[in-house]
Amino acid sequence: MTHKLVMQIAIIGMICCMWFLLNYNINNIMNEVRDIKENQEIMSNEIGYVYDDIEALSNYVTYHEKVGHDELENNEENE
């Protein structure tokens, strides 16, 4: 009788430990997923800034190429 009681207590104890370990692991995984999402958002913003910089630089170069060509044509017409 005491052997069965000891076995039942041991099984219940093992189940409780497994539940706590599983809960701990799930919390760790959820924290890592949250960190990954935050990092993904930060990287997305940084990529957006890079694209904005590239677009601004492209517009700058295009504008100056156009203005430079116009000035050359005006100089040639004036001569």
What features would you describe in this structure?
- The protein has 79 residues and is mainly alpha-helical.
- The chain is 97% helix and 0% strand.
- The protein has one helix and no strands.
- It has one helix at residues 2-78.
- The longest helix is centred in the middle third of the chain and has 77 residues, at 2-78.
- The mean pLDDT is 85.
Topology:
Elements: H1 2-78
Q: Percent helix among the residues?
A: over 70%
Shape from CA axes? Answer: rod-shaped
> What is the terminal separation in angstroms?
116 Å
Show unreliable segments: none
SS element count, helices: 1
Q: What's the SSE pattern?
A: H
Instruction: Summarize the main sheet.
Output: none
How many whole angstroms does the radius of gyration measure?
A: 34 Å
Average of per-residue pLDDT values? 85
What share of residues are in beta strands? under 5%
The count of β-strands is: 0
Structural class: mainly alpha
